[in-house]
Each structure stands twice: as structure tokens, then as C-alpha cells.
User: What shape does this take?
Amino acid sequence: MRATVMYRAGDVRIVDVPDASIVEPTDAVLRVTRACICGSDLWPYTAMAPSEIGQSMGHEAIGVVDDVGAEVRIVRRGDVVVMPFAISDGTCEFCREGLNTACVHVGFFGNDGMNGAQAEALRIPHADGTLYGLPVGDEDALMPSLLTLSDVMGTGHHAAVVAKVGPGKRVAVVGDGAVGLCGVIAAKRLGAEQIVLLGRHPDRIALARAFGANDVVSERGAEAIERVKQLAGGNGVHSVLECVGHDEAVKTAIEIARPGGAVGRVGVPQHQAIPAAEPSFYKNVTIGGGPAPVRAYIDELLPDVLEGRIHPGRVFDRVVGLDDVPDGYRAMNEREAIKVMVKPS
Assistant: This one.
């Protein structure tokens, strides 16, 4: 079978790898029908050190279950399923609490040697706790939006939940990538009164407005902070969704939060310490977040996708076959595409 492997920064190849197979009795084999490239995949694309064995890439997928291990009880051959980006057993105390990304058996697809989903197939450990069955066929028109439940829609929702978005709240979203755009959807869905997007790309701004953003701030640094405060009545916003991960983005998020506000961080951190410690302390700003437990959010978000109340699949603006995945990375890195969908066959 063929899969995407990254060998160093900028070096993405489609290579032959051993066929996916059952190793443990709780495994399944997923035939990937749709995957995608994530903004977080661009961090190694720009910074990965050379590796002889490389890293199998991709952590978002929808597919059809081709095989199951002897101890798999829920997932069945032929099921159409969404594959969240994290492996979880579904039974440990953290899974029961809805924090699947802290599962005692957690692993992250396409990271740290784990097989990735930008491939024709992959092995799914703890299949019953990881995979989520979908009540549609594998060619349903809603597939783009359903695919976002594997990561970006659930991650945007997580940022909104952690930032305590609710009716009447003023909200700012830092970052206009796919997660930030899904954060706009999440904030609107949860009843935000005002949504301010901090972004600079015209195509993304247009989509954010379609999703419910009221205002856009394209400045950066001190100018952005002042502008957001002006738009929010002078004191800042109640809720900030930080969807980038750079220290400057986190600093901006903290500075634009009003006293007593909250910041939901879902951008993969590219720094060792949270900046703006003193302002966050004296303003009593709550800071939280981390890898989104998207598996736990599917129950809540899936009905809105199926019934057409939200359309997060609009973040996909390019579709490629497996052979063109390397160019998909280039396109996203050069901001030619918001998010690239991959159809392996």
C-alpha cells in the first residue's frame, strides 16, 4: 500500500509501505476514503530534522472498516467511520470524563512513529474507543463537513468551550486557518453576541464572515490589541479562541481578554512558556485548553452537520489524490489553500 511519509522539512513523499494489518485483538484496519492536511502538519514541514525512516503523516480521516480484531465488539466490517486524531480506549477514567486525549492508552496518529492517515489504509488501535460510526454512505455529500469532526471542527469547538463562549458574550478568534474558521462556527453556534476574527487573508475573511464573524482585525501586535478593544466597547472580549500557537498569538489573546475573561488555547504551542503572565494574573484571565477531545464532541456536533445547521466542510478549498499530497503541503504552506482534502483512491 502507499502512504505519505515526511523525511525532513519540505521533503514529503508518497512511498510503498507494508499493508495495514491487525496486530492486537482490539485493532481495526481502516480503508481511507478521505483524509486531509492539517495546519499542524506544517510545523514539521518547515522545521523537521532529517530522518532516514521518516514519519508517516496525517491524523484526520473518514473511511470504511476493512477488518477487525477478535476483541472488537462495536465496530464492524463495512462500517463508515470518522477517525479522530487521537487513539483512545473509551473505557478509562479520562475517556469516561470526556477527555479522550488524556486516555491512558492515548496516541496521536501521524506523530512520534505512529502510522498516519494520508494513506490508502491504516491500523487503528483500540478501534471501539477510537472510531465513531456514521449513519451515511461513504460517498455522502456531507463528507467534507463530516471529515472536520476528526479534528478542526471539534478543535474549534473545544477552544470555544474552554473560553466559556455563551449567549451575549463578545468573542475574538485569533487565527484564520481552518481551526480558527471552525472556531467562528462554534462561537456562533454557542450564541456569541459579537465575533471578531483576527486574520489577514481575504478568502479566509470572506468565509469567516459567512460563518458568522461580525468584525475583522487585520493589524498585528499593539495595533490589533487596541482595535479589538475598541470594537468590544473598550475593555476587551469575554472569550478568546487562540488557534495559532505562536507566542505572539497567545500574548495577543491574553491582552484582548477583558478582566475576568477566558482564553481557550488550541494552537499547538511553539514556545516553552505562556507569555503575558503578569497581565493575565492581574486581570484574572482564565487560560486553558490543549489537544481537543474531539471524539467526545461528535455526539453534540454530528446532528448539526447532518441537519445542515453548520457547514464546516467549506474550509476545504482544494482536493488532491494521494500522488499530489506533496503539492498540497506546498499549497497550504504558501497560503494558496486553506485546507486540502486527500482522496487516496
The chain has two domains: 2-151+293-343, 154-289. The chain has a mean pLDDT of 97.
